Amino acid sequence: MDLRLTDRVALVACSSSGLGLAVAKALxxxxxxxxxxxRDRAKLARAHAEVDSAGPGKVLxxxxxxxxxxxxxxxxxxxxxxxxxxxxxxxxTGGVPFGPVESFTVADYRTALDGNLxxxxxxxxxxxxxxxxxxxxxxxxxxxxxVRQPHPESGLSSVARLGLLGYxxxxxxSLGGAGVTVNVLAPGFHRTPILDEQFGADxxxxxxxxxxxxxxxxxxxxxDFGAIAAxxxxxxxxxxxxxxxxxxxxxTRGLG
Length: 256
Known about the structure:
Elements: E1 9-12, H1 18-29, E2 33-38, H2 41-54, E3 59-63, H3 69-83, E4 88-91, H4 106-116, H5 118-134, E5 137-142, H6 155-160, H7 163-175, E6 180-187, H8 193-199, H9 203-212, H10 222-233, E7 244-247
Helix pairs in contact: 1-2, 1-10, 3-5, 8-9
């Protein structure tokens, strides 16, 4: 399927590894020009090479911390200047520590909000004028399945990321007339470096335990997740907005 993304300009946050990198590669494979970012320069250089080899478009990589609003905003504008506009914005953040809601302090929650909600808002605000100007656009916000089904061990994530849903719904009305769609992607367990680090030396055994409670009995593949994001960024998804797409192997089983 041709998603008609050739020469579209995409900005993908936190894209030096994991889900962000998978999305960047999927968009590059569809012919988009892709701007990526990350804090670790060595990882970013490796990611740049992977994205560059995934497709024919240009690749721009920038080292920055998305919690620093000034550099993040400048990254958005530099992307548009260097690549000739901005069509697709994929907001993303790093993870948060595991643990039940009562195990964290107010300071922990403040840090989680600063790191896992506000960067989405800051990047989107910086990109809005550019997206409206183009008359066509996609905003995809990578959250977590916890926005649909909170887990006892993911207290910080459930709280910090939930605000994205309210923000998304506000943007749907603001941007609809400009031809810009806004959706949230809610991934469950996918095999990423962060997950490997979280589980440490017992990663394989721990992942097997997690897989046992997922209806599909396996951990997600990041490339499959990238393909979902690429579809939502394409022309065929032009009538899809204001939706939360859960990709978690059936782990979320609520009716709402």
